[in-house]
Each structure stands twice: as structure tokens, then as C-alpha cells.
Amino acid sequence: MVEVVEQLSDEEKLLEILARRDGSHASGWLRQFRDAGLRRVEARSFPTRKDEEWRFTDIRPIVRGAFEPAMRPPAEAPDPGLAGPHLFNAPGWTELVFVDGFFAPRASSLANTSGLRILSLAESARAGDTFAQQHLDTLAGRSNNIFNAVNSACLTDGAVVHVPRGYASAEPLHILYITTDKLEGKAAHPRNLIVLDETAELTLIESYVGLTGVPYFNNAVTEIVLGGASVLKRYKVLHEGPQGYHLASTLVEQHADSVFRSFSAFLNGKIARNELKTRLAGEGANVSLAGLYLTETGQLIDNATSIEHVSPRCGSRIRYKGVLNGTSQAAFSGAVYVHREAQKTDSNQLNSNLLLSDAATIDTRPILEIFADDVKCTHGATVGQPPREQIFYFQSRGISEAMARAILTCGFAGEVVDDISVEPLRTRLHDYIYNRYSPLK
User: Fold this and answer.
1) Which of 293, 366, 436, 437 would disulfide-bridge 379, Cβ 3.0–4.6 Å?
2) So what's the pLDDT on residue 18?
3) Strands 117-120 and 201-210
4) Mean pLDDT across 88-92
5) Above 70 in pLDDT, residue 379?
6) How many CB atoms lie within 10 A of CB 433?
7) Are the C-beta atoms of 235 and 266 separated by less than 8 Å?
8) Minimum mean pLDDT among 44-53, 171-180, 252-261, 286-295: which range?
9) Cβ distance 180 to 210 under 8 Å?
């Protein structure tokens, strides 16, 4: 008799890993939440290059990696010193630190939480707090992104932030996710839940830092609900390790007259995809999405933005810049959907790219679907190399070509950073750009 050995596909292997994940220590509602997420995973298929939204991002290395979800915190508490260089340590700031996907209280600083609800998701589940249970998956559960469902199936920890009505603080909240070599071959699935009640205001910094050169996978989901006339400024900085994979989905629901300001920076990582979707559900809501991505050989970054205009008199802006070097790849899509009821919509998007190498590639796609007749919607994209005439101008004044290219690159990238309202973050990013591209380093 000939024995037939069935070969499992990469997707089937990943589903098998998810099915046998160890979640026995979870509380009742969290266990049920995970099981519901797994059912959604099983009902969906993993995207391929044939799917329009994913055709520029090859996720096969992630699926083939079969990264086992990290479901339990390490036996020993992480060294608080790991976070030191990546914190801001500014007076009055609240900084939450997560190491390899789990909250690290000894490394965190809860300096200014009066009037706020700020806690880790695991802590919320252990305490029987129903706030997270009521709000989780209200946005991600509607998404057709299978990795959002994977996040729910493997949910362990993350940040829960509730800003009550009328609250406003001048000091930012910093959420820092650190990955160490202990996550080698594994995946963390952090989940952030941010809810602002009416007229509340918050400044949020979300950072991801990889301190290791081993392969790992971060699959992050952030759900944001903005009540009427609330204001959220959110900054995300991605500095994964050289072999780190990062898939992120941020889903935002905006009610009447709310304001959302977003800035995303990609500084390092192997493959990264930032999906950012906001729904302008209330009249007068306003959103601005800005970003900067810097790539080198072997890196791929995909920024997929989407704004859905549901209500009238809403405004939206998208402005992303990229600097590509070596054989790196980048993709950008700016999708704007205007419903029939969304009259008086005002929308604009621009994607600008600077190529420092002939081998670097960028795919940029503006997408406009407009069903209203009283709107103002524009889009644009630019791709080019440092202008030769400007380089010649610098050289004619005794500046070397290398220095001229560095000045132009830093000026191009720094322009979008100038709009950051948090001075310590703005300074940190300007310094990083200068040190990365300066020929004097």
C-alpha cells in the first residue's frame, strides 16, 4: 500500500497554529471573544497579489513564517531599562510600555491620569471591567481584513483609553511597544481601544520599536471612536527591527464636528503595511492624514488610507511623503468615498515621492468614488529624483554633491515633520532624518 502524505498549504498551517493557541488562562468574555475571532478567520481567506487592496504587498513571507502567537507573558518581568532610550521622560507625560506584546508596569509612567480611564486590556479583563468588552470589535468586527480577525483570535493585551466628556490635557499620552529577541519566530497581536466622549481632547503617540535582528511579526489593531466635537491628534512611529514584519489596521469612527489629525512615520522594518480607515459619520467632521516613509534596500512599506464621507459638510486631507533608496519598494493608496448624502464635501490628497536610486519603486494610487454632486475633491501625486539643477546650484557655491543631495532630502522629508505639534517628537524625528541622510555621519 502506498501511503499518501497530505501537504498542508501555508494558509492551512497558519490556521492550524491559530486553532491550537493556548488561551486557557483567559477570562470568560475574553475566551469567547477569541473564539469568535477564530471563526471569522476560518470564514475568510488570506489575501494574495490578485486582491486589489493587497496587490503591491507580498505577505507570503509572513504567512510562510507561521509565527506562533505569544499568548502568555514571560515568566520574568522585562528589564525596565529597555524602554529608557525610547521614552520621552517629559514632565507630566503618561507613558505605557508593552514588551513583546504585554504590559510592563515597571517601565511605565502613569504621571497624569486623573480623570482618564487608562489601563491595559489584560488588566481590564481580569478586573471584570465591561468597558472594553462593550467597545472592542465595534469597528474591527466589520472589517473584511483577515488579519483583524487574527488579532481578535489571539488577543492578549493592549491599551484601553477612555477620555470623558470635556476632558482636555496639554500633555500627550505615549504608548510604546517594544520587541526583543524573545519574540523570535512568534507574533504579538496588540489591540488599542481609544474612545473620546463629546468635546474631549487628547494627543496620542503610538510607537513600535524592534530591538532585535531576528524575524518576528507584529499584527496591531487600533480602534478609535470620536464623539461629537472631540479632537484627537495621533502620531504613530514605526521603527521595527530589520527582520520585523508589521501589519497594522487603524479604524476610526467620527461623529459630528469631531477632528482627527493623524501622522504616521515608517523608519525601519522588513515588510510593513499601515491600513488607516476613517468614517466621517457625523456632519461637520474633519480629518487630516499625513505620513512619512523612508526605505532602504530589502524593505517594503504599504500605506493604505481610506476616508469614507457619509455625512454632509465634512472635510478631509491626505498628505504623504516618501524617500526611497536602494532596491526598496513602497506603495500608497488614497481612497476617498463620497456618499450621495455627503454634499458640500471638501477633500484633497497628495502623495509625493523622492527616489534616491534608479532601482527603487513606488506605486501610488489615488481612488475617488463620488456619488454626490456638490463636492470639491482633488488629488495629485509626484515621483522624481533630486533635481539636477538644484544640485548644480549647490555645487556652484562650493557644496559637494553628497551634501547637496543630503540637504535636499532632509528638506523634502522634514517639511511634513514640521507640522507635528508635539515638540519633543518633532525634534526627535528631525534629528533622525538628519543623522540618516547626512554625509557627515
Assistant:
1) 366
2) 79
3) unpaired
4) 89
5) yes
6) 23
7) no
8) 44-53
9) no
Q: Which amino acid is at 227?
A: G
> What gap in Å lies between CA 30 and CA 15, rounded to an integer?
20
Cell of 277: 480607515
CA angle 430-327-414, nearest 5°? Answer: 15
Does 379 or 10 have the greater pLDDT score?
A: 379
Residues 6+ apart with CB under 8 A from 370: 336, 338, 345, 377
Using alpha carbons only, how large is the chain's radius of gyration in Å? 22
CB neighbourhood size of 188 (10 A): 26
Residue 343 exposed, middle or buried by CB count within 10 Å (0-12, 13-18, 19+): middle
Mean pLDDT throughout 262-266?
A: 98
Q: Which residue has the cell 499568548?
A: 71
Q: Judge whether 297 and 270 are in contact, CB under 8 Å.
A: no
- Asked if residue 95 lies in contact with residue 176, where contact means CB atoms within 8 angstroms, the answer is yes
- Cα–Cα nearest to 230, from 189, 193, 192, 198: 198
Mean pLDDT of 179-187: 95
CB 193 within 8 A of CB 220: no
- What is the C-alpha to C-alpha distance for residues 357 and 2, in angstroms, rounded to an integer? 55
SS3 string, the chain, reads CCCCCCCCCHHHHHHHHHHCCCCCCCCHHHHHHHHHHHHHHHHCCCCCCCCHHHCCCCCHHHHHHCCEECCCCCCCCCCHHHCHHHCCCCCCCEEEEEECCEECHHHCEECCCCCCEEEEHHHHHHCCCHHHHHHCCCCHHHCCCHHHHHHHHCCCCCEEEEECCCCCCCCCEEEEEEECHHHCCEEECCEEEEEECCCCEEEEEEEEEECCCCCEEEEEEEEEEECCCCEEEEEEEEECCCCEEEEEEEEEEECCCCEEEEEEEEEECCEEEEEEEEEECCCCCEEEEEEEEEECCCCEEEEEEEEEECCCCCEEEEEEEEEECCCCEEEEEEEEEECCCCCCEEEEEEEEEEECCCCCEEEEEEEEEECCCCEEEEEEEEEECCCHHHHHHHHCCCCCHHHHHHHHHHHHHHHHHCCCCCHHHHHHHHHHHHHHHCCCC
Q: What are phi and psi of 277, to 5 degrees?
A: -125, 130
Q: Give the contacts of 441 (CB within 8 A, at least 6 positions apart).
A: 435
For 261, phi then psi, to 5°, come to -115, 120
Single out the residue of 342, 389, 336 nearest to residue 365, CA to CA: 336
Name residue, grid cell 497628495.
350
